[in-house]
């Protein structure tokens, strides 16, 4: 391992990967965003993006949805993760929570088509109470619900790991010192489990921006996120330049968020 | 306290039920003779029969597995080499830059990765087929392997390397007898993660596939867009059982190992 | 180290084994010729039984791939990495593909069954000599309604869709030209307008429909209409035929302001690898018996006159699908509008999807 040659030899494939699949694609996307369909340099796409209210609105919308999805997921997952640390057989519980993530995402989305339709299970259940068919499929609610459903395990796991690392003595001490449950949560549990919450949020927020198959299948194209827009521009309308522009703006925003929070973002899929 | 636990349990059961309802819903209707997922008609295995005679779907299923195995294998090799190379970089600034570049694909949304790869393949005139999908899967799996292997390298006891060298081991021997065994757990989890990434991916594949090649996710998407087909339900059942078996094996392996570890600990204390 | 090499070898071996299994699965039933023919078609737009029949007759192996919009198909073919032997674009897309030099010439003289095509369907404006395209099906764009929710006969024109009664009850097909098109027609404009102001007005009108629209979807509309998920759908005649076959409450109307008349056509892309097989397949599909069988399966109207004679009376006399001349004269055929205007249609439609609610 000492010789310079081996070092270079080990570096070559990796560097090649970085150049070909990291740097080059980004440069190409950048190039497309600042040219028009006849390859002339222009900023017209950016101008369009920032002057046409629809794009800004769509961007705000998709951030808003991603925010809501993350928030709701957090609210549901935090107690679950907390209770999980109190359970016997935690390994088994964990496995049970992780298991659904191994089923293909599209299959789960497909299940919801059946569940949420007018004659589906949910409406049959509501029908028992005499509530006539409620429109669920193709609503914002349906989109958010399914997205949350998909993300829950990815939020539970990091929070669980973080709470697990807290020394129970500390919580005990806080309770012994007469802190109420809320105070214990606010001053002890929450701050100490924050790293887990943070990585959970990071694991969910960005993928939530690009759930284009859900906006199609569950949202019925009534919800258009940045992901859907990019997909439409690349695959359907073939305006790669505009698609690239939206992509570049999304990348810039991401970088900004990363610099602001000053932490590296970990992605989905926590190790079993 | 007792009451609290029971509330906790109820809550967790509720979460579990919600998590499993869609899956069991699919499985339940895979046995229905009807055409949709609204009303269970009669029990039948007909959808399983169609599934196992649907050569296209079976071929896609196998191709998805081949793709996952190959891409994760190659990504693991490149990633491990990269991690070793990064760990050897002395200058802090270079190292940080490499790590930052490594993480670009980790944090980008799938749509961006897919779109940029599509642009990339088009610019290079690479056809869209198994090859382009394989390249993409390798590409987005490399960084996770690096991230899994790197900590092991940093934790590694470098005195061992020096010792081996003092004992006259050559470069290759040091590599295969000292470094690799030390980072093997990292490599294994990297491979495992790459495998899940590949099996799980939809968005990137969707952009870079073509010419008759399709993965399970993409195929399900296009079939779901044509409406409900209970053959897909049968497929879900099969996949669920498949995953279940894997997980059970994993569960018993890990619990056994931890028992062993406990025993070892006890031995140490004695 | 040895162990690792073994593991790598094992993985490769498994891949090899699986690869063999795949090639076995993809093998056609008949093993005479191993050549394959790649067809790129709309979803559910060809009777699978005919594919089998063709494979048996000729020994070619068919790989059947689908797309769900003309634009998506164009992207994949233009991108260049594909080798489809046959694709099935609509008429305006034929022009566009031809302009982009994506198509190979077709010689109708080499197709012995070309003579069965009806005179009114060949030599159309988009391909005057049928040099590039052979008509496959034709049809209209219209409104499907469910008489459980809509009084029969109360929908006769596009403007009826804007009625407050149908709040959140309309499904639209995810196609820029068609949706922008009917908005244009309802304003009295041409479906081929290149006037950006008129297009903007059409978008404004569409946005007014927003609250009635439940979803903008593709092929799955069939399933939802059959399941009574929505009262009204806007889609193509063949889709409607399929739905009506599965739900007797559904009806199809071609609105009286006019609508779109379209042709889907076989073309042979430049990148095709197996032109001989492509010719053989097109000729096979032009055979009256096969064409009739396919028309019955797919539910669209066939341009094949000899095949039409073979169809049951209930189909060929159905005015909903083989409209009479008085309806036909109100129908407009899409023209290729060039990249700029097409882009405007697409962008405005996307804007509608993002915004119109």
TrEMBL record, chain A:
<comment type="similarity">
    <text>Belongs to the binding-protein-dependent transport system permease family. CysTW subfamily.</text>
</comment>
<dbReference type="InterPro" id="IPR000515">
    <property type="entry name" value="MetI-like"/>
</dbReference>
<feature type="transmembrane region" description="Helical">
    <location>
        <begin position="63"/>
        <end position="85"/>
    </location>
</feature>
<feature type="transmembrane region" description="Helical">
    <location>
        <begin position="12"/>
        <end position="34"/>
    </location>
</feature>
<feature type="domain" description="ABC transmembrane type-1">
    <location>
        <begin position="59"/>
        <end position="261"/>
    </location>
</feature>
<keyword id="KW-0472">Membrane</keyword>
<protein>
    <submittedName>
        <fullName>Spermidine putrescine ABC superfamily ATP binding cassette transporter, permease protein</fullName>
    </submittedName>
</protein>
<keyword id="KW-0812">Transmembrane</keyword>
<feature type="transmembrane region" description="Helical">
    <location>
        <begin position="238"/>
        <end position="260"/>
    </location>
</feature>
<keyword id="KW-1133">Transmembrane helix</keyword>
<feature type="transmembrane region" description="Helical">
    <location>
        <begin position="92"/>
        <end position="113"/>
    </location>
</feature>
<keyword id="KW-1003">Cell membrane</keyword>
<dbReference type="InterPro" id="IPR035906">
    <property type="entry name" value="MetI-like_sf"/>
</dbReference>
<keyword id="KW-0813">Transport</keyword>
UniProtKB/TrEMBL annotation, chain B:
<feature type="transmembrane region" description="Helical">
    <location>
        <begin position="232"/>
        <end position="253"/>
    </location>
</feature>
<feature type="transmembrane region" description="Helical">
    <location>
        <begin position="57"/>
        <end position="86"/>
    </location>
</feature>
<dbReference type="GO" id="GO:0005886">
    <property type="term" value="C:plasma membrane"/>
</dbReference>
<dbReference type="GO" id="GO:0055085">
    <property type="term" value="P:transmembrane transport"/>
</dbReference>
<keyword id="KW-0813">Transport</keyword>
<feature type="transmembrane region" description="Helical">
    <location>
        <begin position="134"/>
        <end position="153"/>
    </location>
</feature>
<keyword id="KW-1003">Cell membrane</keyword>
<dbReference type="Pfam" id="PF00528">
    <property type="entry name" value="BPD_transp_1"/>
</dbReference>
<dbReference type="InterPro" id="IPR051789">
    <property type="entry name" value="Bact_Polyamine_Transport"/>
</dbReference>
<dbReference type="InterPro" id="IPR000515">
    <property type="entry name" value="MetI-like"/>
</dbReference>
<feature type="transmembrane region" description="Helical">
    <location>
        <begin position="12"/>
        <end position="31"/>
    </location>
</feature>
<feature type="transmembrane region" description="Helical">
    <location>
        <begin position="174"/>
        <end position="197"/>
    </location>
</feature>
<dbReference type="InterPro" id="IPR035906">
    <property type="entry name" value="MetI-like_sf"/>
</dbReference>
<feature type="transmembrane region" description="Helical">
    <location>
        <begin position="98"/>
        <end position="128"/>
    </location>
</feature>
<keyword id="KW-1133">Transmembrane helix</keyword>
Automatic annotation (TrEMBL), chain C:
<dbReference type="GO" id="GO:0042597">
    <property type="term" value="C:periplasmic space"/>
</dbReference>
<keyword id="KW-0574">Periplasm</keyword>
<dbReference type="GO" id="GO:0019808">
    <property type="term" value="F:polyamine binding"/>
</dbReference>
<dbReference type="InterPro" id="IPR001188">
    <property type="entry name" value="Sperm_putr-bd"/>
</dbReference>
<feature type="binding site">
    <location>
        <position position="92"/>
    </location>
    <ligand>
        <name>spermidine</name>
    </ligand>
</feature>
<keyword id="KW-0813">Transport</keyword>
<dbReference type="GO" id="GO:0015846">
    <property type="term" value="P:polyamine transport"/>
</dbReference>
<dbReference type="InterPro" id="IPR006059">
    <property type="entry name" value="SBP"/>
</dbReference>
<dbReference type="Pfam" id="PF13416">
    <property type="entry name" value="SBP_bac_8"/>
</dbReference>
<keyword id="KW-0732">Signal</keyword>
<protein>
    <submittedName>
        <fullName>Spermidine putrescine ABC superfamily ATP binding cassette transporter, binding protein</fullName>
    </submittedName>
</protein>
